[in-house]
Structure formats: structure tokens, C-alpha cells
Amino acid sequence: MSSAASFSVWDYVVFTLMLVISAGIGVYYAFSGRGQSSSADFLVGGRSMTAVPVALSLSASFMSAITVLGTPVEVYQYGAVFILICFAYVLMVAVSSEIFLPIFYRLGITSTYEYLEMRYSKVIRLFGTVLFIIQTVLYTGLVIYAPALALNQVTGVDLWGAVMSTGVVCTLYCTLGGLKAVVWTDVFQVGIMFAGLLAVIIQSVLLQGGISTIISDSAQGGRLNIWDFDPNPLRRHTFWSITVGGTFLWTSVYGINQAQVQRYISCKSMFHAKMALYINLVCLWAISICSVFCGLCLYSFYKNCDPWTARKVSALDQLMPYLVLDILSEYPGVPGLFVAAAYSGTLSTVSSSVNALAAVTIADLIRPYLSLSEKQLSWASKGMSLFYGAVCIGMAGVASLMGGMLQAAISIVGVVGGPLLGLFSLGILFPCANAKGGLAGLISGLALSLWVCIGAQIYPPRPENSRPLALVTHSCNFSGSANWTDPFLLRPFLADNWYSLSYLYFGPLGTVTVITVGLVVSILSGGRQTKVQSGLTISKEDLTFYKAYNILKVSGGAGKFDLDQELDKSFGKTNFAFCDVELSTQTPA
């Protein structure tokens, strides 16, 4: 394999500078927080954060290097249909802010899994906590290892040096600075991610002679295949699989995942928490549009000579760094900026994961069973951050077995996140649900999701279902041919039906199974007589539209009303510790 170019000294300087600034933010909050004497200070920022930094942190947390490196390759290989994920983001934010956020914020909990004990039982809480820990450690290992491998193969950046440096820097600022350090490094890192993607887009547009050329090349190559309404659930990407499957997937991330919930419950009021989710929506759109357009740029450059087929790269995930060195190597430091963007995505995700893992371990596995002071819990939180940082670095080795970046990441999130989303939805939406129903539903949903996911790994779907687009090499200067073998010769009946289900449906499958089985078992086991504690299920008072209706009703009756006061009544006092609304709607005199 040949490389387009190699890393220069300035590239290493830019990359190192990003790591140093990230670590520096952690050190700053370690000293400015005067040790963050309570576990609440360390794990949820003392519940004093405001909307904008939390919104950027929400975006950065799951927009990892997998987005920067994996999404462009997805578009290059399968087309721009993945841009429809933007519709799923809208539905996800609406569901998360209206159904899940009010419950978690009102309860003032540190771990989302505390809710499971309040609503069901201690056994289900422990089950949920263990599932979250397994899912997060696996996902984080992939997030650390996959970009390190791709960048190592193309740029020559040392593989384990990159893995260790990102892991150590993350662990350092998580352990020293807690959630405030994680949020503010996320703000810095999301800026770096945008800068890296924009550098690629601007240079590509300049070299190709304009956006119209890139769009024209993509259209001729069949990459603008956005409006595919085929309802077949075996098709890898269609309008339905991306919008429906994507909504379930991302709701399991933003609605109930500890890493995200921990951010919005750190806000000083529910108004700030909801604002953070909606501002985050704009950031998600921007990052997705940039990464999809990078994929179109990638195709425009290599439409006549695919570097993967021509063996210039050994894996598709290496195409983006290959393009960067191909078009930006004459600008010292700019390839380093793109690598910094990829690793910023890694840092933001890993730090979120480490902080969330520490939070659930303290809240669910240590605090209920050991009598520790707040000071001791604070030190235990830091110890857990250190421990999980080391575990995630270790898990990076396992990630080499997981195939393509984007699909592997979504599969991991969907298989565990889907059933957990079903369990929380069952408890919040259905007052008749009980512990027996919840446990039966969770086990059924998890078993079904695991069955189809493992089957799909053993028997990959046929090309007519995954539908990769053509890649050509007629303008390449290379000899030899690819050695293709047919992996579809001996396959059981389930392989081309059940196991070929689109990976985006793994999550919805688990969610629907949990709710269905959970409701049936709950009703059969006397769930209709269940007395649910107030505040654990959704009510009309939690809905923004209902609050807006009441505000307008008050204004219609009185003729005049104070919007600040009404917002404060509706959103500001739902967390008893923090009642103010910082985003004033009045202009000072």
C-alpha cells in the first residue's frame, strides 16, 4: 500500500497542541473547582451549567471520529441517502425533550438507572446498569481503536502511541476536572471537528472547480440516491430505515443514555435543559451535512480510480485521511488539523463515556451499599474515572474484530440501547407496567436483538440488500486484480431473511419487543392494580405545548402577562436547587 504523502512536523505540532489544550482545561477546572468536594459537583457540574456549552457538549459526545471518518466513506460507498438522518434527529429531540427530559430532571437523579429502581425494582436497576457498562465500554473501545488504525495506516502516526495518548489525556481531564472539564473540552473539540471538515470541503471545492462539479460527479455516479421509499426492512438504507430506525437509535442515546442525560440534568433549570437539546439539534445537522458532503467530495476525487480497489489503502475507513494527505499535504499543519478533528471526536466521546461510567458506578453500585461521606464519594468518582479510562484503552484491542466503523458503532448502540429504551418507555408511558413485565420484556428484547445482530455478523447480507454502488479503477496505474471469493454459497434460510434485517432496525426491534412483552406480562400479573409513585410517569403538565396553551390562556384572560415570570413558573422551579432562568426575554432599560 502506498500513501499519498506523510505527516510533517507542523502536523504533529497541531495535533499535540489539541491534546495539550484539552488536558489544560481539565487542570484548570481541577484548581478552579477547589477540588469539587461533593460527588454532585464532580459528576453533574453542581447542576449549574447553561444551555449553550451543554448543547455543544451533547453534539460532541456522540459525534465521534466515527462521524468524521466513517460517514464520508458510507456516502462514498452507498450514496448520500444517509443525510436523511437529519429527519431522525428532529424526531429524537422532540421525543427526548417532551417525554424523557422532564422525568429525569424533575427527579434530580445522578444516574438514569436510579429511575428503574423507583419504577420497577432493584434487580432491574442493576440489570440496566450492567448493560449500560458493557455497551459503553465496547463502544468506547471501537471509538478509540478504529480512527487510530485508519490514521496509522495512512499517515504513519504510531497506532498504540495514538491510542495511549488519547486514552491518557481523556482520563486525565475526566479525573481532574469532572463534568465541567468534559463539557468545556467538548466545546473546544467540536470547534476543531468543524474546522477539520471545513478544511477538506473548501480545498475540495477549490480543486474541483466548484460545488456544482462535485454535485454533478455525484449525480452521475448515483450517489444522490436520497429519496428511496422502498419499505423492505432488509434494505440496508432507505428513507424508512434511516428515519424510523435512526429515531429509535438516537432517542436511545439522547433520551436515556447516561452520557447525554448527565449533561442536560447538569443544567441550572429545565428551560436551559430543553434549550440545550434544541441548540444541539442545529449542531447535529451541521456536522452531518458537512460529513455527508465530505463523502461526495471523496467520490468526486476518486470516481475514476478507487484507492481501495486499487489497494492504495487497505480498508475503506482509511479513505478520508488518504484524501486529506492527497489534497492538503502542501499546506503545513492542515493535515494535522484534520487528524486533530478526528481525535477531537474520539476525545469527546471517550471523556463522555468515562464520566458517565463513573457516575453510574457511584450512583448504582457504590452509594446504595456503602456508607461514604461526600468527600469520600468525590474521591471514589475520580478513582472510577481513572479505572474506566484504563478499561476503555484496554478494550481498544477488541475493536479490531468489529468490521466497518459506522455500522459496528450503530449495531452496538442499537442492540443494547433499543431494549433499554423500551424498558424506560414502558415505565414512563404505561402506568400498568410492573417489575415482572419490565424484566420479562427486557430479557426478550435483548435476546431478540442479540440473535439478529450475531446472525448478521456471521452471515453478512447479500449485495442486493446492502446495495453498494459501483467503484471504478480504469484510470489507476496498477497491475493485478482483486481476489474475490463468494461468501454467499452455503447459507441457511434465516441468513437471507431474518439476519439480513437492516442494522438500523436492531434498536426498534428491541424497543418494540420490550414494550409488547412487558405490557402483556404486566397485565397478566396484575399490573392494572399497580400504584405508581407520583412523578414517575409522563403527565400533560410535562408537555411544552400544554404549558404554552396555559400561558396563552392566562394572557387571554388577564390581558397582560410577564413572559419571564411564566417561563420561570413553567420551567425554572422544576429542580428545587436551581430556580432561575438566565436567558432573559426582556431588554434592560
Automatic annotation (TrEMBL):
Q: Which domain of life is it from?
A: Eukaryota
- Protein's organism: Cyprinus carpio carpio
Main location, first listed in the record: membrane
Q: Does the keyword Ion transport apply?
A: yes
- The transmembrane residues are 12-31, 51-70, 76-105, 126-147, 159-179, 191-215, 237-256, 277-302, 337-363, 384-402, 408-430, 437-459, 503-524
How the protein sits in the membrane? Multi-pass membrane protein
The protein's matches in InterPro entries, at most eight in alphabetical order, are given as: Na/Glc_symporter_sf, Na/solute_symporter, Sodium:Solute_Symporter_SSF
What GO MF annotations does this protein's record show?
Answer: organic acid:sodium symporter activity
* Protein name, UniProt field: Solute carrier family 5 member 8
Subcellular location, in the record's words? Cell membrane
Q: Which Pfam families match?
A: SSF
Any one GO CC term of the record: extracellular exosome
Keywords (A to Z) from UniProt: Cell membrane, Ion transport, Membrane, Sodium, Sodium transport, Transmembrane, Transmembrane helix, Transport
Gene Ontology process terms (BP): propanoate transmembrane transport
Family assignment from sequence similarity: Belongs to the sodium:solute symporter (SSF) (TC 2.A.21) family.
